[in-house]
Amino acid sequence: MKQYIFGILGLMLIAGMISCEPNNPYDLGPVYDVAGNLEKDSVKIAEYLETAEYDSLYRIHDPSGVVIIVQEEGAGSRPFNGNLVYTNFVGKLTDGTVFDTNIQSVAEENGLHEEGDEYNPFPFYVVSASNSTSSGAIYGFSLGFKRLRSGSKGVIIIPSPYAYRDVDREKIPANSVLVFEVDFLGMD
């Protein structure tokens, strides 16, 4: 019986030592602080809105932290999860730097045009947070477009947790608030 107890204690000791190994494969590093970044971004967005000059019919401050500035109200309905939305857009940083667009003239003006680029309406699926990676766009697009009617024009300001978080992209620094000027063309 003593050998059995010593064997179990030995296995527990080995398991404890392995779980404390500094190269633990289950240690994925620090967890992204969504709440903390939303708080920081809400300050950035408030400062941006103080100086940004947008003509608007009204503004929606979504509980998620996304801000929607409606410039022209569409006559269509609002999309819901699963709808395929078509839009033209200009993506900017809060300093005005254009980082992406599907409008050729804007791409050419901002040095984004490359030979062979096609400029078509951008399609993406409106999704919920649980399947946000399957939409074809950042999750902030779904949050913003759910508040717009088809046919609307406006601006969607997206906090970093609903965009690229703490990942540096080619033209987008980590933890950036993104500003999208959008033309909601329609949906399926």
TrEMBL record:
Residues 82-188 form the PPIase FKBP-type domain. Its EC number is 5.2.1.8. It comes from the Bacteria. It catalyses: [protein]-peptidylproline (omega=180) = [protein]-peptidylproline (omega=0). PROSITE patterns: FKBP_PPIASE, PROKAR_LIPOPROTEIN. Pfam families: FKBP_C (PF00254). Keywords: Isomerase, Rotamase. The keyword Isomerase applies. GO terms for molecular function: isomerase activity. The keyword Oxidoreductase does not apply. Gene3D superfamilies: 3.10.50.40. Belongs to the FKBP-type PPIase family. This is Peptidyl-prolyl cis-trans isomerase.
